Amino acid sequence: MVVEMASPVETLRDGGDYDYIIVGAGSAGCVIASRLSEDPKVSVLLIESGGSERNWKFRIPGGQSFVKDWEPYAWLYQTKSDPSRFDRAETWRRGRILGGSSTINGVIYAIGLPRDYDLWAEMGASGWSWRHVEPFFRRAEYCPGLAGRGKFGPVHVEVLRSPHARTDDLIESAAAVGIPKVADINLAKGAAIGVAQTNQLRGLRQDSATAYLRPAWRRPNLRVLTHARVERIVFDQGQATGLQISANDKLFEVRARREIVLSAGAFGSPHLLMVSGIGPAQQLRTHGISVVADSQSVGGNLHDHPELYIEYEVRDRTYSSAMQWHQLALSGLQFALARRGQAISCASHILAYAQSRPEEVSPDLLLFSGPWGYLEDNFTFTSGVNTYSLSPSLCHPKSRGRIELKSADPREAPMIVPNLLGDRDDVLRLMRGVRLVDRIARAKPFSDRVIRRLSPGIDLSNDEALEAYVRENAGICYHACGTCRMGDDPASVVDSRLRVRGVGRLTVADASVIPLVTSGNLHAPTVMIGERAADLLRAPGRHISAA
């Protein structure tokens, strides 16, 4: 049942008490709401600040090129100037719509490497090793034609059905420089390259709302509240008991009998904790906020995959030159008749893991690529030149930023300190990544299609020039995570069962709990977190508070 917030107080007057209340209908929140409401004896309220995901600009993967005004669909977080990148500032976009960022992302389904999750366990997140989390990935997946993958889940996963004509050449060139090619990149255990996989169903985006929420739509025990903003968590003697919500300029309260779950993302969840009194005590007191729990790590450990676009002019037509009306019309026809072509493209046509140097024991580089250049505006990639980009990133960056409060006002966005390249080792690895992708581009058969390298226009053997290029041009992948880190140590924000330390009946389940970003895009791991969180929430003895 969906409640559109035209008259919030009257709508909720008949039932403000629920067993579970979930904040944020994103990649994890939709999963949790769907799974918990499978039990008809419990009532579930899911709260989303945005509206419906049923918009062609998002249902058709390529439709995002036509989004000129992001504000109705996304939180547009402005960062502070980043000294590690010559004081550049950015806008970090996060979903404000049913499905959250899974509705506005690049539609890539990337599990990462098993080693990623074993590292989580080694860092103190017991029960989150690959052995523990793999069953939850398989539960979520429906992967027809992919051996060794899930067959009965709600998330339809397929290999990109119409990659660009030069994709196979690029994979062969990567193999020529030592990166093994694989048929299923999501079964890779080490260095590998393969065609990207995507969460699409018959060429249409399958975000978390479509995969999980829509099938549960008519359950009488599930309510979905849209266009409603959570202002604060309400506590009673150290227990989370309810939420203050605003909609249509009215403030009201809903109450949870069992548990409140924050799935508001890497920015939203720590921000809501802090304005509600959970966070670094000195920072809270500075803004006049009463301290409920002194949790120094809230908002810390912020990190993302830094990324560069290394661009090549090629002999083939690419999407960079396909924004003219006749090309758009052709793309529309291909989509309508066969669900193929540019309209169903995901954000990368390949995914690869590689070592930046021989002595690395496991992949430290994450590589993306596609038939486009840097997006200069809504309709222009690299001035319309036929461009193919190879994009090096880092599997596990060391640099860490943070989220801080600007004020006690829950409506004021938090301050984001990115520090994307604060650790010089990240810069050095990216420099090696630039040189690696250039080796790939110069290897046959892909090199036969390359006319010239467009950027960077420097001698790549010049360390000083290349470091300056990296710092001037590295950007984010929109994979922010880590700001409510989970672990067994007392400094973690949540324990390994995702319970917020210092209070009771409060859980965080989204990308913010990730202690170390995985080697790939974050939608699939966040869905997995949602699946595991649903099981943890239903476990016996759940409501014993974390220490």
What is the secondary structure topology, with strand pairs?
Blueprint: E1 2-4, H1 8-12, E2 17-23, H2 29-36, E3 44-47, H3 56-59, E4 74-78, E5 91-95, H4 114-122, H5 130-140, E6 141-142, E7 155-156, E8 158-159, H6 167-176, E9 192-195, E10 197-198, E11 200-201, E12 204-205, H7 208-213, E13 222-226, E14 229-236, E15 239-247, E16 250-262, H8 265-275, E17 278-279, H9 281-286, E18 293-294, E19 306-307, E20 310-314, H10 325-338, E21 350-354, E22 365-370, E23 375-377, E24 380-381, E25 387-394, E26 402-404, E27 415-417, H11 424-441, E28 450-455, H12 463-473, E29 475-476, E30 506-508, H13 523-537
Helix pairs in contact: 2-13, 5-13, 6-11, 11-12
Question: How would you explain this protein's 3D organization?
Answer:
- The chain is of the alpha/beta class and 547 residues long.
- 23% of the residues lie in helices and 23% in strands.
- The longest helix has 18 residues.
- About 1% of the residues have low confidence.
Radius of gyration, Cα only, in angstroms?
23 Å
- Number of extended strands: 30
Shape: globular
In percent, how helical is the residue content? Answer: 10-25%
List descriptors:
single chain, 547 residues, alpha/beta, eight-stranded mixed β-sheet, six-stranded antiparallel β-sheet, 23% strand
In a few lines, what is going on in this structure?
By secondary structure, the protein is of the alpha/beta class. The protein has 13 helices and 30 strands. 23% of the residues lie in helices and 23% in strands.
